[in-house]
Structures are given as structure tokens and as C-alpha cells.
Amino acid sequence: MLIREAAAEDWPQIWPFWHRIVAAAETYAWGPDTSEEDARALWMSPAKRVYVAEDDTGAVVGSAYATPNYGGPAAGVANAGFMVDPDQAGRGIGRALAEHVLEAATAAGYRAMVFNAVVETNPAVGLWTSLGFRILGTVPAAFEHPRHGLVGLHIMYRAL
Ligand SMILES: CC(C)(COP(=O)(O)OP(=O)(O)OC[C@H]1O[C@@H](n2cnc3c(N)ncnc32)[C@H](O)[C@@H]1OP(=O)(O)O)[C@@H](O)C(=O)NCCC(=O)NCCS
Q1: What is the tens place of the pLDDT at every residue in 18-60?
Q2: Ramachandran category for residue 132: left, alpha or beta (phi over 0 → left; psi -120 to 50 → alpha)
Q3: From CA 113, how far away is CA 18, in angstroms rounded?
Q4: For the segment 114-153, what is each residue's pLDDT rounded down to a tens digit?
Q5: Whose CA is nearest to atom 5 of ligand 1?
Q6: Average pLDDT, the chain
Q7: Residue from 14, 22, 116, 127 to probe ligand 1 pocket by mutation (most atoms less than 8 Å from CB)
Q8: Which of 54, 93, 118, 119 has the smallest number of CB atoms closer than 10 Å to its CB?
Q9: With a 6 A CB cut-off, is 114 part of the ligand 1 pocket?
């Protein structure tokens, strides 16, 4: 597997799993009916450094971004997002993307990374914890989960 910076031409391969993940409405606080144009503007924004994971055939199987979480004097705190094609989940792609992004964010000079809204039922909480993130707090009953009902959103933090 190769992890590299994304190019604009990668978007058509990101969109199918982006759409599938957001339409499931279990992990991201974006509208499940977000259009492809809005999704591209969100994920591939020039403010973000975007990465893709390629499998051995060159197919894009995951993507991630890092961006300042705040502005001005707090711009040294990063935010990041991660998506892996659900058909390829559980093969270590998410962990590899996260390790890559953490390393790149550290090299870029960020002091810390914050996740603003990790759905408390998301198994990814365990992944983030294993990578050194801790839960700073939880916004209670913030997210209407299609199967679990109202669940909390964790704010997660790690120093870099
Ligand atoms: C979260 C996500 C990026 C993880 O990617 P992945 O390639 O499936 O993750 P990995 O195979 O690297 O697994 C990482 C760890 O998380 C655990 N894990 C990940 N997804 C899991 C799931 N759905 N159920 C149970 N465990 C899970 C694995 O057990 C694994 O632990 P290990 O490395 O100690 O074996 C991916 O599931 C995804 O895109 N989810 C939807 C979007 C999302 O939730 N993004 C994060 C928002 S905070």
C-alpha cells in the first residue's frame, strides 16, 4: 500500500466511498445527501492537505486530510479526517493513514491534533485512543444515529 498526497484527479475514486460513508449517517456530521460538488469542496479544499491510500493495483482505497483546526494564534493545532472504503475496512489502511498524517502534521510544525466530533459509538474511538488521543469531553446527545438514537460527540486531543 502507498500513501501519497492527493491530486484533483483522485476525487472520482474518493467520491464513491465518501458518499457511502456520509450517506450512512453514522460517523460524520455532514448531511447524508451532500452533493458531489459540495463533498469535493469540503474534502479537497485548498486549505487542507489531502492524502490517499492506494492498494497494490493503484486503486484509491482511503483518504485523509489535515488542516488547521483554528485560526491565527491557534493555527498550530491541526484537525484531520479519515475515510476508508467500507469494502476494504479492517485491513490496517485506516491505521496506516493515521500514522502517516500524524507524522506529516508533526513535520509540518503542528503542536497538537484535535478531532471535534467523534461519534461515541464509532469503533474508530479505539483506533484514536491507541494512537495516543484522549477524550477531552463529550457533547451529550448531539448526534442522531440511525441505529443507536441520540449519542454523544467526543472532542479528542493528542499533542504532537
Ligand atoms: C475509521 C476508519 C478510517 C478505520 O479504517 P480501517 O482501515 O477500517 O481501520 P484499520 O483496519 O486500520 O483498523 C484500525 C483499528 O480500529 C479497529 N476498527 C476499525 N474499524 C472498526 C470497526 N468497524 N469495528 C471494529 N473495530 C474497528 C480495528 O480493530 C483496528 O484495531 P487494530 O489495528 O488494533 O487491529 C474506517 O473504518 C472508516 O472510514 N470509517 C468510516 C468513517 C469514519 O468513521 N472516520 C473517522 C471519523 S472519527
Answers
A1: 999 999 999 999 999 999 999 999 999 999 999 999 999 999 9
A2: left
A3: 22
A4: 999 999 999 999 999 999 999 999 999 999 999 999 999 9
A5: 94
A6: 98
A7: 127
A8: 54
A9: no
For the beta sheet containing 49-54, the strands, ordered from the edge strand earlier in sequence to the opposite edge, are 2-5, 49-54, 60-68, 77-84, 112-119, 149-159, 134-145
The C-alpha cell 446527545 sits at: 141
Contact 51 CB / ligand 1 (< 6 Å): no
Domains of the chain: 2-159 (3.40.630.30)
* Cα 22 to ligand 1 centroid, rounded to whole Å: 15
Residue of minimum CA distance from atom 48 in ligand 1: 118
**CA-angle at 96, arms to 93 and 98, nearest 5°:** 110
Cell of 20: 457511502
Backbone angles phi, psi at 48, to 5 degrees: -105, 150
Q: Which three cell numbers stand for residue 132?
A: 495516543
Residues 6+ apart with CB under 8 A from 74: 68
Q: How far is the CA of 109 from the centre of ligand 1 (A)?
A: 26
- State the pTM of this model: 0.96
